Amino acid sequence: MTKKILKSGVSRRTFVAGTAASAAALAASNFGFPHIAKAAENVKIGLIHPATGFLAYPGGQLRYGAQLAIGDINKAGGIKSLAGAQIEALLGDSQTKPQIGAAEVEKMHEAGVHAISGCYQSAVGLAASAAAAKYNIPFSIDVGVSDKLVQRGLKNVFRMADGYGRIASAAATNLGAINKAAGSPAKTVAIVHEESEFGTGTAKLMNKYLSEQGFEVLETIKHANPTRNFDNIALRIKAMKADIVMPINYPGEYVLLARTLRQQKVDFAASYSVLGGGFNFKFVKDLPQIAENMIDVNHWYDPKSSAGRALRKRVEADGKFFTFEVYLAYLSIAFLADGFERAGSTDPAAVNEALKNSTLDPMFMPYGPTKMYDGQNIGSRAVAIQAQKGDVQIISPAEYASAKAVFPRSKA
Amino acid sequence: MLAMNISMMPAAVLNGLMFGAIYALVALGLTLIYGVLHIINFAHGAMLMLALYATFYLFKFAGIDPYLALIIVIPGSYIFGYALYRWGIGKLSHGKDQNILLITLGLSIIFENAAQFFFTADQQTISLSYSYDSFDLGFVYLSYPKVISFVASLVICLMLWWLMATTDLGKAIRAVAKERQGARLVGINVENIYAITYGIGIACLGAAGCLLLPSFYVDPYTGNIFVIVAFTIVVLGGMGSIVGALVGGFIIGITESLGGLFLGESLGQIGISLIFILILVFRPTGLFGAKQ
Questions:
Q1: How far apart are CA A128 and CA A144, in angstroms?
Q2: Cα(B18)–Cα(A394) distance, integer angstroms
Q3: How far off is chain A from B11, nearest CA to CA, in Å?
Q4: For residue B3, how many other CB atoms are within 10 A of its CB?
Q5: Is the model's pLDDT at A20 over the cut of 60?
Q6: CA A76, A81, A85, A90 torsion: positive or negative?
Q7: Is A195 in Cβ contact with B266 (below 8 Å)?
Q8: Which ipTM score applies to this complex?
Q9: Thinking of the domain A43-162+304-381, which architecture would CATH place it in?
């Protein structure tokens, strides 16, 4: 008897056996073996950052940090509760504009995004997260300090890092303590801030908290983005004889102001910035004579944690600077991935619920246990850091401090 | 507050003049290209950025002081500009002005994205041994880099004026600017003059890059910070006018500085826009522009 072969080259017996196996697999998927049916579907996470424009550098650092985390998670087996689903990044460029950020959300929604991480600028984060709220897409703010981000009652918006409310309060308290320990040489402050939500909101809070600490704010000076020339501001600070100069601005202007203060030979006890965009390892390395003894209150990693040291080593081996954008983006992706893991689903409502109850280990950050309150991780905190001898040291809080504060600054 | 502002006025005016000279240099290239080619060079900001990067890398890898780099970057920029127009923009435009506009716009996008790809978006600064040395005038410190930039800008403007006013090349450029067909009829190679003019315009940016870097920074988008101001200066001074670019640069520099002093550094920028609108309403040809 001739064996009948099907056109595809598969024997009838094999075909029957295969069909039976497929039917069994299909049946099994409906009776508690979901991994067989869902294994191929990727989890799509949108990354919205300023990839072009005057904030392209921090934007690029954020994108790099997020992709580093995605690579690590995928290598470790993906989202295990979703049958090892791999995370796929959808890249978006806000071009520093809120309306473009919101448009990127719409595009990503069309592309089937499951969660979004972004956006660096608070103004962009506000617009983009509101757009994501229409579809209940889980939205993790990697960097973005405005407290309005998590105070609008949106159930899909979360932030692992701290916001400007608590950072400003801690910055003022810290400054008060450092000043007192040095015999209270500083009494007056000049605040110089950029004009958007980040700078304006933080400056307003600093005015309040500094007064509570007994400092007199002589003037709050707002500047445009970008500002080409800081000579007038430097001369103004010089004329008012402020003891503390407090910059609250983005990288380009931060560095330009610091250089101009030096060029105009402005005498002050300390430069004490709050969320200074330009204060990082690169600034300290490139302009050591200007950076020396400058203090910043900002997001920073815990140099005592082995995870932090290991991540820094990897990032620097890639030829990148270990700026806060890198590790906050990494943390944001880890936070979202943990949400998918515990939800065991990509359903937005289930993921938002899981994120709301997150207890993620903050890994390399000097944070307490993660606890979300209205979308804000109340375990997070910023630290005070200072440039000392070409390196960056944590000077406060005491449990993470790696050096004592030099205050007032030493004058070379 | 007002008393403090008034006491700071001389310093603010001086700072405005110093910065205005750099603005003038950037505007000079723009106005020259417009005056002859009758097109707005949308790649102007991107070209300035490339000049800044050239200066930065000459300093970083060869240790060449930015002011010494002038003798490399200016001719390099000229050759780049000449070649770009002669074998790129000129050929692709097929003689149509609107095509040139689109090509320069496209070039700006290409240059900025290429710079971000090759140089990264990282902001680069340089620190010279004399970066923070300055002349003490009592009421203000004028840093050496700013004074050098000011003097060099004036010298370059003067040289360009001399070139345009007295040399055969200058006469040929002016002839092409005034009457394209007529110039062709008397034997001037118009396409070559276009390319030379474009090259000179870009050489001005080369000079601006060298003079700006010691007191500023460079990233792929730095050029745009200056080019918007440069457009205003060109309109203010009169399109195609070298003297107009210089005087316009000073006026805008001082306006920006005084505006920042009295209205705040955020609102102070409004002065530039106000001048732009006033010039368009009351003297559309600019301060030194020829009437059509």
A1: 12
A2: 40
A3: 8
A4: 7
A5: no
A6: negative
A7: yes
A8: 0.86
A9: 3-Layer(aba) Sandwich (3.40)
Q: How far is A165 from chain B (nearest CA, A)?
A: 24
Amino acid at B162: W
Contacts of B132 in chain A (CB under 8 A): 262-263, 289
For the full predicted model, state whether its pTM sits above 0.90: no
Q: Tell me the per-residue pLDDT of A169-219, one tens digit each, with 9 for 90 and over.
A: 999 999 999 999 999 999 999 999 999 889 999 999 999 999 999 999 999
Give the C-alpha distances (Å, rounded to integers) separating A373 from A36, A136, A308, A342, A353: 37, 18, 26, 18, 12
Whether B123 and A263 lie within 8 Å, measured CB to CB: no
Amino acid identity for residue B189 in this structure: N
CB A273 within 8 A of CB A223: no
Please check the confidence at residue A287 and state whether its pLDDT lies above 70.
yes
Alpha-carbon gap: B201 to the closest alpha carbon of chain A (Å): 22
Does B122 sit within 8 Å of A263, measured CB to CB? Answer: no
Interface of A with B in 69-98 (CB under 8 A): none
Among 1.25.40, 1.10.390, 1.10.3470, 1.20.58, name the CATH number for the domain at B2-282.
1.10.3470
Position A104: which residue type? E
Task: Sort out which chain A residues have CB atoms less than 8 A from B229's CB and list them.
Answer: 228
| Rounded average pLDDT over A237-245 | 95
